[in-house]
Amino acid sequence: MSAGNARVCFVIPTYNEALNITSLLKRLTQIYGDADTAFLVVDDHSPDGTARLVREVADGTDGRVHLLEGKRRGLGDAYVRGITHAMDVLDADVVVQMDADFSHDPVDAERLLGRIADGADVAIGSRYVTGGSLDERWNLRRRLLSQWGNRLAKWVGGLRGVSDCTAGFKAIRTEKLREARLQDVQAKGYVFQVELLHRLIRCGARVVEEPIHFRDRERGETKLGVANMLEFLLSIFWIRLRSHLTFLKFSVTGLCGTMINLVSFYLMLRLGIHKFVASPVAIMLSIFSNFMMNNYWTFGDRIMIGRESVRGVKFLAVSLMTLLLSYSVFVALSILFPRAFPVLLQALGIAPGALLNYYLNSRWTFRGADRER
Ligand code: GDD
Ligand code: MN
């Protein structure tokens, strides 16, 4: 089974999973017999010899089982390395991320891939949608941890539409992973799941959830520790802060533009240039500085829809409208109040122009891919 004709790669991180990995790989290769399906185990030199077992299975299969070894820096780090390898070296169109301890039933991946084939970009194996469930053996502490982690991710991390934000079982189109700039993910630990989802949603990924039953591991032990929880708490706030940072940068840009407009207008008046000529020139200067700052600074990390040249044309159109609005207000006010200080009238013209400019540029010119489709 695959998602259409796509090349699928399961990415399975392991740390001390010697008791599980052989049977998991056997089960997976048995269910997904398709030549276009590969399995990549990302092991961080587990002391229990997990890697050796993976090599043994790999030798017995037709080159579909792969092993990537690295230094242990946490689950998120292992996933970034593994998924990058799956995309760039194994040429995967779709990756399935999955735990090695049978908490995720190998059979369920089939439904996730089915949803991808139907057009989803991300299919989450979800414990918290109707039909999904958690192992009854999970103790209260673990349940509360998961529930509150999810609540935080939802409300603080801005993942409102998703029920299982921390899920570790997902099928994802690699095309979207490239758009979401997987390589820029900062999370090292389990919070990786939230950061990745946040990035995917921000660039317009179509996310669906499939109910799964999450079984507690039978063998080996969990690696989720206090360091992971701390990172989770700090990162969640950082994810949110970053959007506030964008707003702050946008305001600073606007302030600079206003200064440039008024100062250049004043200087031109002092040079004896007529106010009806100085006004549009000053407005254009500020529009230009705003564009440069927004393009390279405020929205510098936004993934934009469309080509640079198209954005240039849109920007020109928006600028023209802004110019017309601000200038008309200035001219109108100058006629109504011929004795007023021109710099004041110029400042009053900025306000409606800035509003229009912000609205059109953020909705249209600098539109993030999140409004696509
Ligand atoms: N390579 C590597 N490096 N693998 C790791 C590391 C690491 O530092 N830490 C954990 N793993 C592997 C484990 O060997 C296992 O295959 C998988 O990652 C999940 O680890 P568990 O320790 O079993 O996680 P869990 O069961 O507590 O957590 C599960 O539920 C969380 C949400 O409640 C996972 O599915 C998480 O991804 C999920 O966020
Ligand atoms: Mn587990």
Name the features.
373 residues; alpha/beta; 7-stranded mixed β-sheet; two-stranded parallel sheet; 9 strands; elongated; disordered C terminus; binds guanosine-5'-diphosphate-alpha-D-mannose; binds manganese (II) ion
Short structural summary:
The protein has 373 residues and is an alpha/beta fold.
Structural write-up:
The protein has 373 residues and is an alpha/beta fold. Helix 1 (21-31) packs parallel to helix 2 and helix 9 runs antiparallel to helix 10. It has helices at residues 21-31, 50-60, 75-88, 109-117, 140-155, 174-179, 192-202, 226-270, 275-298, 308-336, 342-365; strands at residues 8-14, 37-43, 65-69, 94-97, 122-126, 133-134, 170-173, 207-211, 213-214. It contains eleven helices and nine strands. Strands 3-2-1-4-7-5-8 form a seven-stranded mixed beta sheet, sandwiched between helices. The site of guanosine-5'-diphosphate-alpha-D-mannose has 24 residues, from strand 1, strand 2 and helix 3.
Report the β-strand fraction as a percent range: 5-15%
Rg calc: 27 Å
Q: Which structural class do you get from the secondary structure elements? A: alpha/beta
**Principal-axis shape:** elongated
Output the strand order for the largest sheet: 3-2-1-4-7-5-8
Count the strands? 9
Order of helices and strands: EHEHEHEHEEHEHHEEHHHH
Task: Indicate the percent of residues in helices.
Answer: 40-55%
Question: What secondary-structure arrangement, pairings included, does this model have?
Answer:
Layout: E1 8-14, H1 21-31, E2 37-43, H2 50-60, E3 65-69, H3 75-88, E4 94-97, H4 109-117, E5 122-126, E6 133-134, H5 140-155, E7 170-173, H6 174-179, H7 192-202, E8 207-211, E9 213-214, H8 226-270, H9 275-298, H10 308-336, H11 342-365
Parallel strand pairs: 1-2, 1-4, 2-3, 5-8, 6-9
Antiparallel strand pairs: 4-7, 5-7
Helix pairs in contact: 1-2, 8-9, 8-11, 9-10, 10-11
